[in-house]
Predict the structure.
Amino acid sequence: MLLMKDIIDDHDKRIRDISLPVEMPLSKEDEQLLLDMHEFLVNSQDEDISKKYHLRPAVGIAAVQLGIMKRMCAIHVLDFDNEGNIKKVNDYALVNPKIISYTEKKAYLKDGEGCLSVNEERDGFVPRYAKVTVKGYDVLTHSDVTIVARGFLSICLQHELDHFDGKLFYDHINKEFPKAPIPNAMIIE
């Protein structure tokens, strides 16, 4: 089981390294790593488990955050209805995902982004594409997938894929005016 101690932070130089494509077919070790990464996300969102093991809640994690320079990431994003019930679960354990198209329209999280590898508060808006299409291999379904993502899921995918290129969310924040409105952008609560 992955724990917070397994995650490197932004003081570790490896977080800025470029991740390499993963050879297919996938090795058993890489498949298990992705399953463990996904399990970490599910556990981090479970109140009892996260409290017991001191996990920070997370919706995504990239292999580089474990010090492994491979283009692999896991996503666990829950969509809720107005009553707070789960209406959709977006679960992926992706190998070599890449953005194949995006809209010009921007979006950002009203309260800013966070990251398991960033321990200090980094205030500011992070401009992202409002909609992206991502292709990759998904270990959870053992198939090639095409994900058309809008809003929050789109932001999560872009955040994780940035890790592959050594980028962190705060690299995108306007340094002079961190909370400057982004014109015509979708604001996500």
Remarks:
- The first helix runs from residue 28 to 44.
- The mean pLDDT is 97.
- Helices lie at 28-44, 47-53, 151-164.
- The chain has three helices and eight strands.
